[in-house]
Amino acid sequence: MRMATRLLPWLACLLLCACSSTPPRPEIAATYYLVRHAEKAPNAGNDPPLTAAGTARAERLSASLAQVPLRAIYSTATTRTRQTAAPTAHLHRLAITDYDAADAAAFAAYLRHTHSHDAVLVIGHSNTLPALARMLCQCAVEEMDEAVYGIRYTVTYDGKSQPHLQVSRD
Questions:
Q1: CA 97 to CA 44: how far, in whole Å?
Q2: Which structural domain range is residue 137 located in?
Q3: Cα angle: 129, vertex 38, 140; to 5 degrees
Q4: pLDDT, position 85
Q5: Is the pLDDT of residue 152 over 90?
Q6: Does residue 42 lie in a domain region?
Q7: For the chain, how many structural domains are there in total?
Q8: Average pLDDT for residues 116-120, to the nearest whole number?
Q9: How many angstroms separate the CA atoms of 131 and 28, rounded?
Q10: What CATH number has the domain bearing residue 69?
Q11: pLDDT tens for residues 47-58?
């Protein structure tokens, strides 16, 4: 009898613990930051570097993503995109991985498959990022003006509903 009296509180506790549930927490499954490269040097050939203003913009991008737990950084294989990505890559201690911007559908599928629960930065161009954003968000995305810098598309997935696109400028 004494043993049963001692076990009863423990059994009640176990039963209550088994019945308790944790409330579901909202979770972002993936966030893709798509950013056009910063200002490039005019008349500097086919692969121009960033200007001083472009370098400053790349530093501001890095600062704006300082608290984001980035898992990967992708850039096209040009000097201006790599230089735009470099400060963020250095801050997060991540390598910059080249990607081919020619096939937005294939790259979007790769990102969704490989980084389905990650925050990822992609640096690209005014004539390629809108198509990538369209593929990721499955929504209408306007073309970019080549003269405008500082455009950022943020595509978020929660894993349950449609992707969400936010367009911002710095």
A1: 24
A2: 30-169
A3: 25
A4: 98
A5: yes
A6: yes
A7: 1
A8: 96
A9: 23
A10: 3.40.50.1240
A11: 999 999 999 999
SS3 119: strand
DSSP, collapsed to helix, strand or coil, labels residue 123 as strand
AA letter at 103? D
User: What is residue 21's predicted lDDT score, i.e. its pLDDT?
Assistant: 47
14 within domain boundaries: no
Q: How far is residue 99's CA from residue 59's CA, in Å, rounded to a whole number?
A: 22
- Per-residue pLDDT tens for 95-107? 999 999 999 999 9
Has residue 10 been placed in a domain? no
Instruction: Give strand pairing partners of 121.
Output: 33, 73
Q: What number of CA atoms fall less than 13 Å from residue 145's CA on the CB side?
A: 5
Phi/psi at 80 (5° precision): -65, -35
**Token pair recorded at residue 110:** 């790769």
Q: Per the domain annotation, does 3 fall within a domain?
A: no
